[in-house]
Structures are given as C-alpha cells and as structure tokens.
Batch of 2 targets.
Target 1
Amino acid sequence: MAGFRLSKPYTMPREDIRKAAQGLVARLEREHGVRSRWDGDTVRISGSGVDGRMSFHDGNIEVSVKLGFLTSVFEPVLRSEVQRYLDTHVS
C-alpha cells in the first residue's frame, strides 16, 4: 500500500491551526470526494482508495495518508497539494 507522511511545525494559535486544517479538509472533500470525521484535534479522511489522518498538537501538524493500488498513481500530486497547502496556510 502506497502513501505518505508530512509534518510541519507551527507557532500559530490553536484556533488558527484548526481553521487551516478545516480548510484543507474542505478542499479535499470538494476536489477528491473524501469524507471526514473529526475527533478533537484529529480528523480522519476516507474515500475510495484513500485513508488518511491529520492531527495537530505540541506545535506540530501531522498528515498521514494511505493509498490503495489504483489511487497510488496520484500520490505525488496529492502529496504536493497537501504540502503546498500547509506551506501556504500554516506558520
């Protein structure tokens, strides 16, 4: 199973980090048809061939994504999209 992990430190207030995370989740839902489920400061993302988790704590936002065989061809594009979003919206 293919996938990736990303991590980015942050110094923003927790409320701003949550808004940034919610924005990323909304974008993934809209553009990739995934579903999300929040549990505190962690969100689970799932869809056809995609299973992911994003959490923020202790000054670090972490993203972990597992991709099925057919969706694994999109790994570089998805990784780049998530990294670009974090670089733009998280500080």
Target 2
Amino acid sequence: MKIWPDCIPCILKMSLGVARMAMEGEDQIERFMKEVLRLKYFSWRNRHVTSPEVIRDIWLKLIAVTGEPDPLREVKDEQNRRALAIYPKAKELVLKSKDPLSKAVQLAILANSIDAMTDIKGGSPEEVINNWDRFKIAQYGLKGLKERLKKARHLVYFGDNCGEIVFDRLLIELLLEKYSINVTYVTRTLPVMNDATFQDALHIGMEKVTYVMENGIPEPLPGTFLKRVRTELKRLIERSDLVISKGGGNYDSLTEEESLKGKILFLFLAKCYPYCHLHQVTLNAPIIYHF
C-alpha cells in the first residue's frame, strides 16, 4: 500500500515522539525535525512510496543525530519484559476458552497495539489481556484461517513489534499442537522503531518453540520487500503453503508483492483511516485479511 495523505501527519507525529524519547534538549530535536521535513515525501513530491520506506529514511537521520543504532532499546526491553510477565495469564486464558486457537489469534492481533507508530509507548501487554473481550473478530476471517491451516505444511510467520512477539509465540505454540505444520518465524535484521529483531525473539524464547530467522534486509526498514530479503528466506517463502504477516508495516509493504496473492494473510489492527476505509471496519478493529 502506497502512502495516503493521512500517513504524513501520522509519520511526523511518530518522528517527534521518538525524538523526545531519544534526544536531549530542544535544539537537537529541532535540528532533527528540520532534517525530517526536508524529505521529499512531506511536500507530496513522491507519493509512490510505502510508509516503511519513509520511516526508514527518517530512522537513518535519527541514528545520525543521536549516534544510537537502536534508540528505542529501553522501550523494547520493557515491552518484552511486561509481555513475558503476563504470558502465563494469557496462556491460561487461551487454554480455558471454548476455542483456544481462535482466542490465541485474537490476542495475537490485539497485541499489535503494542506499537511505536501510533504512540511511542504503545499499548501495554496488560491492556491486551484486560480488553480482549471488547474486540470481536469476524468469524469468516477466522474460518478462512483455520481452513488454510488445515492444508498447510510449511508456514512463514512475519513478526512485528516487541511485546507483541510474546503473543505470537503463544499462537505458534497452539498451531504446532493442533496442526502438522513447520513454522519459520521471521524478525527484522536491523533495529527500527520498536520492531523485534532476532535478539528480541531469542529473549522471549521463540527459538524454544520454532525456527527463527532474521529477514536479512540491511537497513532499518519497518516492513518487508521480498527483493531485499535473504536468499534462504525467499526459498522458504516459495516452498511455503501459507504466509502470515503481522502489523501495519508488513501489510503496507507485502501488499505490494503480487507473487504473494493467494498465499498470504495479514493479522493487524485498523489503527488509521486508510486501514478502516479499505477493510470497512471501525478504528482499532482487528483485521484478518486474506490477500
């Protein structure tokens, strides 16, 4: 999905929020924001680009100004720590439900609220548990997912945010128990926003559950473009029966990949007007989109 006019203020708000977290003093923040506003995207001269590409260019400026390769490291560590603390309660909730798999899918989607794009601190893992019953997932989306899982033998699962990945782990545990399926979990290679890297996946114990791989993209890109991922991952995707993608950044980029049509589905929250409009849902509604 290419950027909409709505993306511009959203990205600028995120940029300022990160700057206030990562920088000291208004002079440094002002210098950074001036550099951001010089980017061609904000004069609407380049509309044929995705949000992850815009954020990549902003993140490179952030790294240059702060000298920090991972400016949100402390935020990410806190998100993972709190999610791990709530994990036993989340698992109990899932296993006691009438339909554990559906409940695990629901929590995995709601955990997409643990974000740095719409709010620098994002939602909390505790809110995911406390608010789950307020959100209803369309049954046709769940039914379609279950039907595809029955037929799948090789699954590639693209993760998104820190904290959220703990709920991905819970969902993958259910998938492995219920289906005869191999799962590869994919993270970012370089830090960007609060997206999970390979090290974050190891920290929350994902490698104890399934095979973990970084995408190999050598830049801080909060999305996925197949032409940039490592060769091994390309081959896994080609051999896979199903690809599951989490989050808005992966949605924005992977919906540009025609080769994935009929193979991929997206799990995320409708955090903005473009998502609500395209999928005819209300703000912050959970989405299962079969692409």
